[in-house]
Design brief:
Layout (H helix, E strand, L loop, with lengths): L11 H11 L5 H12 L14 H14 L5 E5 L11 H5 L5 E6 L2 E7 L7 E5 L2 E2 L23 E7 L13 E7 L9 E11 L14 E12 L5 E20 L4 E6 L14 E3 L7 E5 L1 E25 L2 E24 L7 E3 L5 E2 L3 E37 L2 E16 L6 E17 L6 E3 L10 E28 L2 E23 L18 E5 L18 E5 L1 H14 L17 E20 L5 E20 L2 E6 L5 E5 L3 E23 L2 E12 L3 H4 L4 E2 L2 E2 L4 E4 L8 E15 L2 E23 L11 H9 L6 H11 L6 E3 L11 E4 L9 E24 L5 E11 L23 E9 L3 E10 L2 E6 L5 E6 L2 E11 L4 E8 L5 E5 L6 E6 L3 E9 L1
Parallel strand pairs: 4-7, 12-16, 13-17, 34-39
Antiparallel strand pairs: 1-6, 2-3, 4-5, 6-7, 8-9, 8-49, 9-10, 10-14, 10-48, 11-13, 14-15, 15-18, 16-18, 18-19, 18-20, 19-22, 20-21, 20-22, 22-23, 23-26, 24-25, 26-27, 27-30, 28-29, 28-38, 29-33, 30-31, 31-35, 32-34, 35-36, 36-39, 37-38, 39-40, 40-41, 41-42, 42-45, 43-44, 44-47, 45-46, 46-49, ...
Keywords: Cell outer membrane, Membrane, Receptor, Signal, TonB box
Protein name: TonB-dependent receptor
GO cellular component, one term: cell outer membrane
Length: 999
């Protein structure tokens, strides 16, 4: 080992110190200051540079971050304190090659990196592991970026290769979110931002659903240090209110199937086809819709972020930082939909395309007795709160040896923010549907069906009131050291302890006994409860919305009035089910807690080699040992009762908690090599091993029963606390040409070999000795009488008419207007055992993926124009097999997709303009259908255009105009075929106008 020759633009001592900081040592605070020092070095050995500001300064700092790091690191650096380049951190991350985002309500929420989904990317805040909660995915580990405002963020660092200094858990990437610190930028700095948001997606809704039009966005940051440089304080705060919406069309409960075409003429398997044109034949696979719905959703989100930082430097050797971070995100949603359900009638009429896997282009069911036109409505609100308090101390023991201590306590909590629970739906229906036709082929599927509210007014049918709650916490302490062994050589080392807890509960109050079974006095549900609105206009951005025959109406109630009226009517008529009421329960029926206690130690050694081609190496080793404790509530079932056409609720018994322990250890090596072929040309190679921990719902330790069985089977799930983490062996090779201060061309190859994926195994079994009336003596008598298997109303009517008062059979009234007799039919000891499809998880799957990344960043001399472009190609042979009839045991990598970005830039003394296009190719987004059944869901290719225009009046005052989703892009999700439309989403364009003043 020798001293590095002086052929590089930066002295190696400073370069290596910067590399260690960027690599995510526990002192992430110091990392940013070091990066700035390296970027502005004016020593005799460094080239003299012209100071640049604005977008060019951001681009130059970003390239410095990438160039000076060990391993492959990308990122985004704020061009100025309190001014991040996008309105959302996830939307900023999507500009980086290999990073794709998943959107919720038109806003970036979670990230996928190099084809690996949100659960396999670790997010740090200033080098610290953060807890996260999300009621939409209580079992996941994905970090929800929509909770964080970008205003106090100074850097986003994306580590695509392993680095032993970082906590383990990111296979796709480890993302470090770095916030501003007063010592990073000495002196007094402050700014105020004021914006007005006009989100057109929230205005394409019926009047009673609109929250507002123009909403505010305020943020401010203040930072100051004492004259002697010993004290520093910074405070940032932001508040944003956004009124938006999204409209959907699709089969919200998925498709029935897959079925083998040779069974399509059967009348005994429950999915027979009637009259077909070009119907499925032979060994082809077919699916038919379970239902179809049009939905409108109005969303009001309120986000508040605050951070307070104190820094104290008693002497030049010791720097301490105390920080507190708080965020609160409230979401209030109004939902209404109209839908039709299909019963797989053997008298259906359908038209089909050719192919080995097919879904109908048109599907019609005709009914001899009127069926329901369902109108479902919801009004629910949730709140997520994040709090973190941390302490960091950096002690320079000597000029060559430095120690860092970092500790924090952080929590995230999500729950209901409404007296009606975290989620609720009330379903009402008009029993006047004599046929239903859904036509696929256009972007917007077309549902046609009659409704006669005068003859059959909307009346209560079912309801679901849910209370979900989730809390996660992380207690973490880390001690690390950095020893500058000699010129060009450094040793990093450290130990740490992380205690991570994820606790979630769930309860549901469900009343489902009035699907045509209840007789109500006239006027119980007056028409004045609803307002009617024409449907097609709310899908004006989707081709097909003006098609003839489309069902024309939405029925929008005031949810509070509807709930109160329904509760009163149901109580007066004695139709409230056991434990009923139309409010959520605070007593959980599901309660699961996972604790992970991880001890870690690492060491890495980096050195420069004075060879013909200057060469730098970094060798690291990290060890982690994790103990897992899973505690879960078990609630057995004691009976099964058939209460309506296809609903068999389970009667649940007592409650008990169970505990399961497991542990595992992992040794994670990492090697990063780089060759400086020229001053401006680098070649990198990296090999290493990373892990991604299993999802919490895969590890929960008790048996969880689905609350309601169908006429075919019940559902259950049980996790496996002993699941090992997914292990990835990684290879990365890249070449980078830094041919100008703000310009770059790079190309890279990566390969990941993954092992220990948690595969989903489905076990068909009986549970708790539960018997179902389907297939019992009464049931078989109805079939013998002439009822078809698919005509469950006929079967129930026969049993309730001929066996009322016999064991298990209770008719509760005469037939209603639709000819349906209300009543219950309980499973008897002589009836068949109910089959449960029980999902569980085992470490049995392996996968591999390869990818290519290309980056170009170029500024056109002094013209002010520039361009950024990148493309990522990802391939894996492990794909979902659409031709496989077995949907229960398939495994495929979720989120795998190609992606690209193209950004045009113009900047001069006053103007700063960006026009950005982001594209993501079709990808598998889930192996579970919207209704919970097994089957693929693909998100089709999506491209969005955003623009940002800034004008600086002077060095203090500037104005900003942003447009998000300028091209009004829509998103579409399908199943095995393009006709199998699960959802089409329409959002809208968002406009932001603001002013910023710096003091």
């Amino acid at each position: 080992m020798h001293q590095q020759s002086k052929t590089l633009p930066y002295p190696k001592t400073k370069l290596r110190l910067m590399s260690m900081a960027v690599a995510g040592a526990c002192a992430a605070i110091v990392g940013q200051a070091s990066a700035q020092q390296a970027a502005t070095d004016t020593s005799a050995d460094a080239p003299q540079t012209v100071v640049v500001t604005g977008l060019r300064a951001s681009m130059q700092s970003t390239l410095n971050l990438k160039r000076d790091a060990d391993g492959i690191v990308d990122g985004i650096v704020a061009e100025d304190m309190g001014k991040f380049p996008d309105t959302n951190l996830a939307e900023s991350l999507q500009r980086i090659s290999g990073v794709s985002i998943d959107r919720s309500n038109g806003e970036g929420q979670t990230v996928t990196v190099r084809g690996l989904g949100p659960d396999y990317n670790l997010v740090l805040l200033n080098g610290r592991q953060m807890p996260t909660t999300n009621l939409g995915d209580r079992g996941g580990r994905s970090f929800d970026f929509s909770n964080l405002s970008p205003d106090a963020i100074s850097q986003l660092q994306v580590y695509k290769t392993g680095n032993v200094d970082n906590a383990a858990g990111g296979i796709g990437a480890t993302i470090n979110v770095v916030t501003a610190r007063p010592f990073d930028n000495p002196g007094m700095h402050s700014s105020i931002n004021i914006k007005a948001i006009d989100d057109k997606s929230g205005q394409n809704l019926p009047g009673p659903m609109e929250f507002g039009k123009i909403t505010p966005d305020f943020s401010g940051i203040y930072s100051n240090t004492s004259e002697d440089g010993r004290f520093g304080v910074s405070l940032s705060a932001s508040y944003q209110k956004r009124d938006s919406g999204f409209n959907t069309a699709g089969s919200t409960n998925g498709f029935q199937g897959p079925f083998l075409a040779s069974n399509a003429t059967s009348t005994t398997d429950g999915h027979a086809l009637g009259t077909t044109t070009n119907g499925p034949t032979g060994n082809s696979i077919y699916l038919i819709p379970q239902n179809f719905a049009y939905g409108l959703n109005s969303v009001q989100s309120t986000r508040q972020n605050d951070q307070l930082v104190f820094q104290f430097k008693p002497n030049n050797e010791l720097t301490t930082t105390l920080d507190f971070t708080y965020s609160e995100h409230k979401i209030h949603t109004l939902h209404t939909e109209v839908s039709a359900w299909f019963s797989a009638s053997p008298t259906s009429v359908s038209t089909w395309p050719s192919g080995s896997v097919v879904t109908p282009t048109t599907y019609t069911e005709n009914y001899t007795t009127p069926q329901d036109v369902s109108a479902a409505d919801g009004d629910y609100a949730t709140k997520t709160k994040n709090e973190s308090i941390g302490f960091n101390a950096v002690w320079k023991y000597s000029p060559k040896l430095k120690f860092t201590f970092d500790a924090h306590h952080s929590t995230a909590e999500s729950g209901a923010d409404s007296p009606w629970g975290s989620g609720n739906d009330m379903s009402n229906a008009s029993f006047s549907r004599t046929f239903s036709t859904v036509t696929y082929g256009q972007t917007l599927p077309i549902l046609s069906m009659p409704v006669n509210l005068a003859a059959a007014p909307l009346q209560a049918t079912g309801s679901w009131f849910q209370n979900a709650w989730q809390k996660a916490s992380v207690n973490q302490a880390q001690v690390s050291g950095s020893w500058h062994v000699n010129e060009g050589s450094n040793l990093n080392f450290g130990i740490g302890q992380t205690d991570n807890t994820n606790h979630n509960t769930f309860s549901q109050v469900q009343n489902n006994n009035c699907w045509g079974n209840c007789a109500f006095p006239a006027g119980s549900f007056p028409a004045s409860l609803y307002q009617s609105f024409s449907l097609p206009g709310y899908f004006s951005n989707i081709p097909g919305h003006n098609s003839p025959g489309i069902f024309g109406q939405f029925y929008v109630p005031n949810f509070g009035q509807l709930r109160a009226q329904t509760a009163a009517v149901m109580a007066a008529t004695g139709n409230i089910s056991a434990g009923g009421g139309y409010l959520p329960s605070n007593t959980p029926t599901s309660d699961s807690q996972i604790k992970e206690n991880t001890s870690s130690a690492y060491a890495s050694y980096s050195t420069d080699w004075d060879t013909t081609i200057p060469f730098h190496s970094n060798f690291g080793l990290r060890f982690e040992h994790t103990k897992v404790t899973a505690t879960a509530l078990a609630q057995p079932a004691t009976g099964v009762t058939w209460v309506s056409q296809n609903e068999l609720p389970l009667t649940l018994g007592g409650q008990d908690y169970s505990n399961t322990d497991a542990s595992y250890g992992k040794v994670l090596p990492d090697v990063n090599l780089q060759w400086d072929l020229r001053q401006d040309l680098k070649l990198r190679a990296s090999v290493g091993e990373t892990i991604g921990r299993a999802r919490y719902d895969q590890m929960q330790g008790s048996l969880s029963l689905g609350g309601t069985a169908s006429t075919y089977y019940g559902t259950a799930s049980v996790g496996n606390p002993a699941l090992k983490p997914v292990t990835s062996k990684n290879l990365d090779i890249s070449a980078e040409w830094y041919y100008d201060k703000q310009s770059l061309v790079s190309a890279g190859f990566f390969r990941k070999v993954l092992d220990n994926y948690a595969g989903q195994a489905v076990i068909n079994q009986s549970l708790y000795g539960l018997h179902t009336p389907v297939g019992g003596a009464y049931y078989n008598a109805a079939l013998a009488h002439g009822c078809g298997v698919a005509d469950t109303n006929c079967i129930r009517n026969y049993i309730l008419t001929n066996y009322n008062g016999q064991p298990g059979v209770t008719a509760t009234g005469p037939a209603n207007n639709a000819g349906i007799i209300p009543g219950t039919i309980a499973g008897l000891p002589t009836d068949p055992l109910l089959n449960f499809q029980t999902d569980t998880y085992v470490n049995e799957k392996t996968a591999n993926l390869n990818g290519l990344e290309f980056n170009v960043q170029h500024m056109f001399a002094s013209t002010g124009f520039g361009v950024q472009a990148n493309y990522t190609y990802v391939h894996s042979p492990l794909k979902y097999n659409n031709n496989n009839l077995d949907a229960s045991t398939q495994f495929a990598i979720v989120g795998l997709s190609n992606s690209a970005n193209l950004v045009g830039i113009y900047e001069d003394q006053n103007w700063s303009i960006r026009l950005a296009y982001n594209w993501r190719d079709t990808f598998l987004s889930s192996t579970t259908q919207p209704g919970g059944g097994n089957g693929p869901v693909y998100t089709k290719a999506y491209g969005q255009v955003d623009t940002s225009i800034g004008y600086s009046v002077n060095k203090n005052l500037s104005f900003q105009f942003d447009i998000v989703n300028l091209n009004n892009a829509i998103q579409k999700q399908v199943g095995r075929t393009d006709q199998e439309v699960e959802n089409v989403y329409q959002t809208g364009t968002r406009y932001l106008v603001g002013a910023r003043y710096k003091f």
